[in-house]
């Protein structure tokens, strides 16, 4: 399957640096689920060495506390950084919203609109300040790189 993906080089480069479990829809080539540890905000998650100072430098702003705004900006920056891997057209993305489910779990929502139609069921959850679950459930045609499925 990997050899057939249009963004094969991005997948090879990314998976060589990190340990991910990736599920690809064989009809569209779209990642439907990605599991892996990617520290985004300060915390005690797997391999997390992020500090308020390093996060602030990455976001180009001062970070004195991790709040909804900081988490939302960090999550959106992460999605933008991996947009070629995920096949996401960032021009389709709206403003990220973050909600603290509890002190160690954040839920982030980034709305996506394609040709005026909202895309549903895209979520990201972060236990222990580490991105670990990305269930991408986009409709065919949700990005410029998706291929409509045949039913």
Secondary-structure map with pairings?
Layout: H1 8-17, E1 20-24, E2 31-39, H2 52-59, H3 68-81, H4 83-86, E3 97-102, E4 105-109, E5 112-114, E6 117-119, E7 124-127, E8 130-134
Antiparallel strand pairs: 1-2, 2-8, 3-4, 4-7, 5-6
Structure explained in plain terms:
With 151 residues, this protein is an alpha+beta fold. It has one domain (2-134). Helices cover 24% and strands 26% of the residues. It has 4 helices and 8 strands; from the N terminus they run αββαααββββββ. The protein has helices at residues 8-17, 52-59, 68-81, 83-86, and strands at 20-24, 31-39, 97-102, 105-109, 112-114, 117-119, 124-127, 130-134. The chain has a 3-stranded antiparallel sheet, with no helix packed on it. The longest helix has 14 residues, at 68-81. 26% of the residues are buried. The model is unreliable at 127-151 (pLDDT under 50).
Features:
single chain; 151 residues; alpha+beta; three-stranded antiparallel β-sheet; 4 helices; 24% helix; 26% strand; globular; disordered C terminus
The succession of helices and strands, N to C, reads: HEEHHHEEEEEE
How widely separated are the two ends? Answer: 20 Å
* Percent range of helical residues: 10-25%
Structural class: alpha+beta
Q: Order of strands across the biggest sheet?
A: 1-2-8
How much strand?
Answer: 25-35%
Low-confidence runs of at least 5 consecutive residues: 127-151
| Sheet having the most strands | 3 strands, antiparallel
The number of helical segments is 4
Choose one word for the global shape.
globular
What kind of assembly state do the chains in view correspond to?
A: single chain
Mean pLDDT: 76
Radius of gyration: 16 Å
Number of domains: 1
Number of strand elements = 8
